[in-house]
Every structure is written in C-alpha cells, then in structure tokens.
Amino acid sequence: MTTATPQRESTSGLAEMPLVRGNLPNWAPWATLVGAALVGVAASMGLGLHIALAILLAMLVHSVAIYAWSRAVEGGRRATDRLVTTIVTSAFLLALVPLISVVVTVLQKGLVRFDSEFFTFSMRGIVGEGGGAYHAIIGTLIVTGLAAAISIPIGLMSAVYLVEYGRGRLAKAVTFFVDVMTGIPSIVAGLFAYALFVLFFGPGVRMGLAGAVALSVLMVPVVVRSTEEMLKLVPNELREASYALGIPKWRTVVKIVLPTAVAGIASGVTLAIARVIGETAPLLIVAGTTTALNLNPFEDSRMATLPVFSYYSYALPGVPREPYLDRAWAAALTLILIVMALNLAGRIIARLFAPRVR
Amino acid sequence: MKRSTLRRAAMPAALVLTLVLTACGASNEDEPAADATGDATTEETTELSGSISGAGASSQAAAMEAWVAGFNTQFPDVTVSYDPIGSGGGREQFIAGGTLFGGTDSYFDEEELPLAQERCGGDLIEVPVYISPIAVAFNLKGVDELNLGPAEIAGIFAQEITTWNDPAIAKINPDADLPDTAITPVNRSDESGTTENFVEYLVATAPDVWTYEVSGVWPVKGGEAAQGTSGVVGAIEGGDGTIGYADASQVGELSVAKVGVGEEFVEYSPEAAAAVLEASTKVEGRGASSFAYDLARDTTESGTYPIVLVSYAMACPAYETQEEADLVKAFIGYIVSEEGQATAAESAGAAPIPDALRSEIEPVIEAISAG
Amino acid sequence: MTSLSPPGRTKAYQRPGDRIFSATATGAGITILVVLAGVAGFLLYEALPALRASPEDLPGGKNLAAYILPLAFGTLLSAMVALAIATPLAVGIALFISHYAPRKLAQGLGYVVDLLAAVPSIIFGLWGLAVLAPRSAELSVWLADNLGFIPFFAGPASATGRTMLTISLVLAVMILPIITAVSREVFLQTPRLHEEAALALGATRWEMIRVSVLPFGKSGVISAAMLGLGRALGETMAVAIILSPSGGVTFNLIGQGNPSTIAANIALQFPESSGVAVNTLIASGLALFLVTLLVNMVARYIVSRRSEFSGAN
Questions:
Q1: What is the distance between the terminal CA atoms of chain B, rounded to a whole angstrom?
Q2: To probe the interface with C, which of B224, B232, B236, B240 has the most C CB atoms within 10 Å?
Q3: Is position B321 within any domain?
Q4: In a domain, C43, yes or no
Q5: Structural domain that includes position C276
Q6: Measured between beta carbons, which residues in chain B are less than 8 angstroms from residue C129?
Q7: What pTM was estimated for this model as a whole?
Q8: Angle, alpha carbons A107-A111-A116 (nearest 5°)
Q9: Residue of C236, C282, C309, C313 best to disrupt the A interface, most CBs of A under 10 A
C-alpha cells in the first residue's frame, strides 16, 4: 500500500527530493502483465491482429504501463529500473521462442518416419517409400570415432604441454592459436582435408578418413581448452607431494594428474564430440554420400553420414518427394537427439564424477 | 555400484555397444534379392558378377536408382554405382577413363567428341535413355489452369512480363480470373541440364524475346533461384504468384501451364514428350553407334510437347576386359529394354523411348565386346 | 676430495621417460601450430591454379576478384545484420541470467540457452525454410509497404521469404548462445565489491549494472560479439538451404535476388565442380579463412588482456 509521503518544511529544495518515496505493491507488475495480456487478446480477437504482433503489443502495453505507474509512485530512477527488468526478461523469453519452435518442428516432422525400419535399413536398392538411415548412422559413428581417435591424443597432450611444461613464447603462441582455431569455419576445415588428401590420392577423392581429419581440425581446440581447464583445477599440492616422493614428472602427470582430472576431461571430450557430430559442410565435401553401407573409411569411396544424408534427402529427393522429405526430417530428429544426449551426458559426467565441484 | 566401477565399465560398454550395432548390418542388404525372373533363363545370367561405376547427369539420378534396383533383381551379384556429379563432370570422367559408362544431358560437342572416340578406340556409343518432359509449374491463388505460348513464357522468364494480369497473358486466357499479383519467376541456381534444355526451347521458339545464349547456367539475374529440382518446386510452392520450370515428374500437386504448340495448347505427357524425339533428326557424322539428336523444339506438330529433356547414356563399343564388356552390355541393355524403360517411367516419370528407336539401339548394345 | 661445481646452473638429470614425455607434449603443442599453418598452406596451394587462370576459364567468366567480391559482400552483410540483431538480445539475456534470474534457476537457464548452441546448423536450415521463411515473407511485405524508404527494405518483397532477412534472423539465433555464454561469464566476474558499493550508495539494480557491470564487461562483450561474428561468417548449411542466390551486390534485405555467401556457395557448387572451378571455390574458402582468422585473432587478443585465473594455486 502506498505510504503517505511525509512533507518536510525546509528552506532548501529538499521538498523536491524526499528521502522516502512511495512503493508500488508487490503485485503491481503482475497486474500490469495480466492487463496487457488482456489487451493483446482483445486486439488479436477483435482486430484480427497476427498473434506475433498481438504479443508485441501486449509487451509494449505492459512496459509503458509499469513505467508510467512506477514513475508516478516511485520516481524516475526506479521506474527505469523496472523498465529494464521488463526488457531483460523479455529478451530471455524471446530467446526461448526459436528454441521451442525448432524442437516442436523437428519433433512433428521427424516422428513420421521414426520407426524401426528407419534404424535398420540402408538406402541400397530403395526407390521411394521405405528405406532408412542405418548406413548413415554407422557412417557417422565411424567418422566421428576416427575423429575422436585423432583429436583426443593430440588435444590431451597439447593441454598437458600447456599446463605442465609450457613456459614462454611457444606456450603463449599455442594458447592463442588454439583459441583462434575454435573459430575456423567448418567448410574451411573440409576444404583443408580435401586439399590434403588430393595431394596423395589425386582430385576427386572421397574418403571417410578425410572426413575424420576435417572433424578433428574442429574438435582439437575444444578438447584442448576443456582439458586445460580441468588440469588447472588439479591442486598443485598433489603434484608437489608426488615430486617430493621422488616420482618423475611424466609419471606424476600420467598417474596422478590425469586420473584426477579424468572426469572433467571425459566431459569435455563428450561435449567436443557433440559439437562435431552435427557438422554437415565438411563431410559434404570430402565424404560425399552413398546409398549402401560402407564400413571402410580408408578406401577412396563415399561414406554416408547422418547430417549429409538428411541434407541430400531434402535437397535431391526422388519421385515422389514425400518419403524423402520424411526421411530427411527423421534423420534430423535422430541427429538432434544424439547431440542433446551427448551434451547431457557430458554435463552429467562432469557433475557426478568431478573431483572438485565449483 | 561404486563410482570407480562405473567409470571402468563405461569405456568397454560403449565399445561393445558399437560393435554390436555394426555387426547387425543393414537389414535390407543381408536379404538375398528376390529372384524376379524364372529359374529357366537364370542359369547363365546370374553368374554375372563384379562392379562397374558411372557418373554424369543428375537429371538421371532418380531413374538410375530405379534401374540399378531393377538390374539387381536379375543380377544380384553385380554392384553398379552412379555418381550424379553433373553432365560436364560425367563427360570429363568418361574421357579420362575413370568411368566405364556415363550419363549426360547434352551430347559431346566438337571438342570433346574426338577425345571420347579416342578413349573408346573407335566409335562412341551415345543413346538416349531418359526422356523427361519439363513442366512449367506455377502457384497462383484462384487460378488452376493456364495457357502460355512460347512468347509469353520467354517474356515471363526474361522478366519483361511482370504481373499476372498482363494483357499478353490475359489474351490467351479469356476465362481465367487473373489477379494483379507480381510474377516471381523461379529458376535453378546450379548449373543444370534442365536449364539448358529449357533455354534451348526458348531460343528456338522465341528468339526475339529471349536474347540470351544457351547454357546450363541461368542467365537472368534477380529472379528467385533455388538449388536442384526439389528446391525449385519447393520455392514455387512457398510463394504466391510464383512460376518456374522443373522436371515434370517432381512437380507433385502444383498447377502446370499448357504450352502453346502451333495453334493448340498442349499439356505435358510422356507420350507427347517422346513424340518430339520422333520428329527430330539424328546428328550426322558421329559414327554408326551414336544416336545423338538435335531436338526439333520449334515443332508445331499436333500432340507434341516441345519442352523436353533428353538425356543420353554413353559407353564404348569395346572394353579392355571381357568382364567389363559383359557388365556394361548387360546394364545398358537393361536400361534400354522395355522393362527398364517401364521401371524408369514408373519411378521417375520418364517417357519410354520409342520402340522404333529401341530396335535400332539394341543391336549396337549387343555388339559391345572386349578387345 | 669433493670438487665444487662451478657457479651457475647445473642441469638436472632428466630421465628418458621424462624426455620422451615432454617431447611428446611439446610435439603435440607444435602440431596445433603446424595444422593451422597447414590449413593456410594447403588452401593456398590448391587455390593457386585459380589465381593464375585467365578470366575465361573461371566460372562466371570474369576475373577471380569479380567472382569472390559479391560473395564476400553477402557474407559480411548477413553476418553484420545477424550481429546487430543478436548482440543486444544476448547482452540482455546474459544480464538476466547473471543478475536478474533467481539464483537457483540461473545455471539451469544457462543450460537452456546452451541447448540452442547444441542444435546442428542443418536443422536450423530446415527449420528456417519450413517455418521462418513463410512468416518472413509476410513481414517483408509489411516492411516494403511501410518502411520502404530505408534502403534495407526497398523491396519488392520476395514472395517466398528466402531472403537475406531470413538468413540474418537464423544466423542471429545461431550466434546468440555464443555471445550469451561469453557475456555471462564476463558479467559474473564483475568484482562483487564494486556491485555492492553501488548498491550501498542507493543505486537501483539497473543503475548498479550500468555503473559497475557494463563498464567492466565492455571489452568482454566486444570480444563475445566478435566470436559470434566469426561464427556467422563461416555458417554454411543454413544459408545453403534457405537463400535464393540470384542477385549481386545489393543492400535490399527482403528481395528475391540476393548475393550468396562464400561458405554456402562452396557447399552448393563443390559436389558438381571439376577442374579449375574447384580451385576457384578453394580460393574463396581461403579468403573466408583469412577473414575469420583476423576476426578471431582480434577477439582473442581483447580477451587475453584480462588476467586469467587458475584454479590451482
């Protein structure tokens, strides 16, 4: 309830700057919100306004109302404060809109073909209806597995270098360029892998291994960064105790530091895998696509992967189009589920097994 | 379970899971292919085995899928792979000897022909295997049927006719209720045989309106561009007042314009498209095994649909090994056979090649041999 | 008699295990530098034929610069518009998570925004074409009618919505999580004492943020924006699927003729290219790599000027 403003009789202009101001009741923002929502609903039903514009109108009404009301009762500064609170909250809610829209769209369209045939059949000999993404899923597992096999050792050892051994300019340069590497466009990584393999195999080469190389260019910086963070968290006392007992440095790192940080490292690696498993562009260029199962990433033959399968089903469907589009969305749903699951797994591993929780 | 036990079990568990998944194998690849033909004739033919690869036109991609699937029901031990990298790349790879056969939307030109003949050590086999009408599809609220003559089509795609209720269109569509919506012409953003054939038609029938050269790259800037046939169809569906050209088999539910031929307006159909081939003349001087055609796109014969894409398969009359020769002979033989053409008609909406042409082509294919 | 070793450093005995291990570690670190140099090197090697070729051989028939410049323009335009849309939004969200949201929910909300980062870009492409483009078409018509005097909305509006505007919106959604995450980290590192001093002096929450958080985090936000810019410049699949690339250099965001971006152009043309066309695409990729390298280097330099903490003492 608004308290009465005590009047002060004084010579200076203190009457204009009372020390105590009124307060809006706690339910005030909610009241204006409800009012604004009613206005929005009325506008959309009465005037036939598009729903997005109606929501925008409601937000505008709410902001103006709360600002005006607060300014009248509480004063300009607190009114501005409330306005900013409204703006910031709406920014967050706005960010949720595309997320929900994407998830709903992919679920709606992807569940059509989310059946067992989709997961056990390849596209060999299939024309039109039926078929599945088995070859693409296996291709993704092979290529990502190879990429992990390449990037984990390199990433791990680089992080060990940066934390345990690096002093001076080389270490600074490596740190700097690892950060820069996180920003390489994925298609450039694909072109690099292509250019590299063209040197050995001639133009037109397509290979699962080349795809793995492209993905590892994208994966290594993420592994290095997160491993470095984890290794830094290992307390120095452990290392010093180990040295004091006469254990050589390399054994300290291998037997004490790394096992202590292993949970965090595992979580970092999982997040890195989640990042590259959805990359389409580099695989489009160097791995191509095929309809049959291909288990050999070391020969010059195309290997299908899930994101590229989804793209080609969408962009180059056969006749009739619908089954291909359905498969594309189902592949997209599978992909997003895998990525979300890996993300979740990474964070859970970090939470449950970390040696020290921040 | 202790955390450390969980940790130690995680890695091997993941590994085992992956191995199990891989060991399953794709269900459709394990099943023995159904034996379509009877037992009598399969004695010798099912002994064919090996693999051949070809590359070329992406317009044939859907038909190729159907042909490979059909071929595999007769010869399950043969692996055929076709890479739809485009006609240009297909011809290049064929000349370089990287592929045994290929597909192309346009026959080899004067520079490429001698190189191809050199690759084959003699004549070159070029046979039309895929005839597909190119439909002019549109999406306009309230209008389901439309007549368009060559001049109007050229005017629309050259962006000279800009609204649907333009007098030129209204004149030949007296019954239609044309709104004043702006016309959005949709074209291919990638290099394509469909574009080349469509532009050839415009140059042949309306050269005063369409002053651009023939090429696989769309020459007019500013229209709505989309990737691939599916992209064009999607773009047409996605807006009001859109019109575009696309392979007829993929237009789905879209309304299609009737194209003016002579005095009439003809709807597309596989038969009408194949009729254009019958009215066209073979290109001379390319050897006895070449069936390249200069299409008579300005034909005014009744019952023909002139906007058509004719795609060829190329091969050599002689290969190095008997195995290669047998495989190519069997596969191309299947493609041009009645059965093969019917499969393509069903799955890719193509027009089967005329019977007269088939009887000329089959002996040439049968003559493929080694040496 | 013991001989005293001369003054100065004596090298400790290094066991072979230590030597091998430290060599391996250093080698791994050097590999990173080698790979980066390799990327530039191999791209240059494969791009050389295009740099040397005469204009008639190149796709498009004009010289290499004329081929790449419209693509570079499209790349920069879409990335800049996306940045302009995403940065204020991201700063708002970061402020919300770090200062406005209830403490218990804050980490969870951070994960929710990070979920946006986890969505693969091809899915954004499919979603953009299926959901956003038609809505953007309606919006474009309204923009062309009412705000047509601004060069960005000059129109005529595209009927299908496959425009620079849609692309920029999708890119903005994709770079939002990166800018938010980095800004959030920076805002959380504001010295507590500064914040509390402002509050003690009677500042409202917004005034406290304006006075202590934002100035402290300004450089962090700038570097976050540059990281987002780097990501937007390199985005391929969403642009490849959605955009209608039929135009040249134009500021019109809502028309049907748009310049393509370097990355999308490579993705679309590469599978069917052969010969010098491939080299041309790689040359454009090299240009993209150099630009993103520059942007990322500047961003990281700004960040590195802040002191780093290590959890270990």
A1: 71
A2: B224
A3: yes
A4: no
A5: 53-310
A6: 234, 238
A7: 0.85
A8: 140
A9: C236
